[in-house]
Amino acid sequence: MNDFDLLLPKQKAWVVECLSSFPEYQHYAAADCAEELPDELLYLQNMAEEDDDFESSLEEWEEFVGENHIWVLLEQSCDEGVMLAEEFVYERVKDCPREWLAPFETLLQQCPDHVLAYLAQRHYLAVRMDRADRFGKPDWRPADGPFTCSDLENYSWKKASFEVRNYAR
């Protein structure tokens, strides 16, 4: 048995989706075309415009998201590219394995709100475009699966197949 075998079904779905989702350059390039935030986040857009360090801060947090592979968690924490309220975010990601929850919580607690809004929108769009390319639809929830992955399953329990060789010749 391996660690994947011990996970609950929804946790397996998170692992499979997080390890399968790697938005490519064209997904991020398309997501970057959305330069402005939705109207309800105009105050965050104004904060970003007034922040002299916004670009460098955005790059730092972008690197943090990439290093910790938490773009799927960011995408799942949004509704139409807008971050949900904190209690709804935790409700959506509660079944995610702990290895991704710790850095995600760091992001939520330490990233400035105006930077987080732009990160969330960018990853929401890129991850959904990547998923649409892979599955033909952008929507996904842990209850939808997939719950298995050939790369993660343990093969030690399968019957060994071997060929008998005659060394007596």
Quick overview of this protein structure:
With 169 residues, this protein is mainly α. It has helices spanning 9-20, 25-31, 42-50, 54-68, 71-76, 86-93, 98-110, 113-135, and strands at residues 78-79, 82-83.
Into which percent range does the helicity of residues fall?
55-70%
Summarize the biggest pleated sheet: 2 strands, antiparallel
Q: How much is the radius of gyration in Å? A: 20 Å
Order of helical and strand elements: HHHHHEEHHH
Count of DSSP E strands? 2
* Beta content: under 5%
The computed structural class is: mainly alpha
Within the largest sheet, what's the order of strands? Answer: 1-2
Kindly report how far apart the N and C termini lie: 39 Å
What's the helix count? 8
Q: Which spans have pLDDT < 50 for at least 5 consecutive residues?
A: none
Whole-number mean pLDDT: 86
Number of domains: 1
How would the global form be characterised? elongated
